[in-house]
Amino acid sequence: MTQQTENLTSLDSIALKYGTDKSSLEHYYTRWYDMILSTLRSKELKLFEIGIKDGLSLKTWKEYFHNSEIYGLDIVDCKQFEEENISIYVGSQDDKSLLTKISEDAGPFDIIIDDGSHHNYHMFDSFTTLFPLLNKGGYYIVEDLHCCYWQKTHQTGEPIFMEFVKTLMDKVNANGKSDTGDPLKDEYRHFYRQNHYGYKDYWENNVESIQLFRGIVFIKKI
Questions:
Q1: Per the count of CB atoms within 10 A, which of 102, 119, 120, 150 is most buried?
Q2: Residue among 27, 118, 119, 122 flagged as catalytic
Q3: Hey, what CATH class is 43-221 in?
């Protein structure tokens, strides 16, 4: 870590300043963001967050990722929170054509955060649309996973998003279709089990890691 990074204000301090619920006063997601993303904060990135509300988290990201462009989406018109390096779109997170257009216009993104409706089908639709459009090595983050289990979030009987996350854990290991710990070396290995287990699917080829904490998951793309 460079001296410049060491001297930067912590994410939690920034979050506390702006009053976002990601801070240690509420969810305390900032500790996990800082742990996983701190080495990226001085890079020139594109971050896209679903769910704007009062715009506090967008301001937090702008200060933390101080060389980056920040984008947000909300079903409510939050254009009043636009400022330099913060751009806002209006629409629903389950509008796949809109998500695709946003990625085409402003992306590809390096970090995508779902802090939107917390409905299971919205989480799933947004993830399956946007993760393939994420930059290689990028992170897709979903917050407030406790909502997955609440009755109001799956009244229509749709699968709980956390069940999908659990299946992705097997995808990280390619369901046994490879014998190497480095997915980038799969095509060069002779002992490749495709004849027995079948060819790897999209998720087995593209999900590098999953880091799960209470209420939040970080899914990294290969």
A1: 120
A2: 118
A3: alpha beta
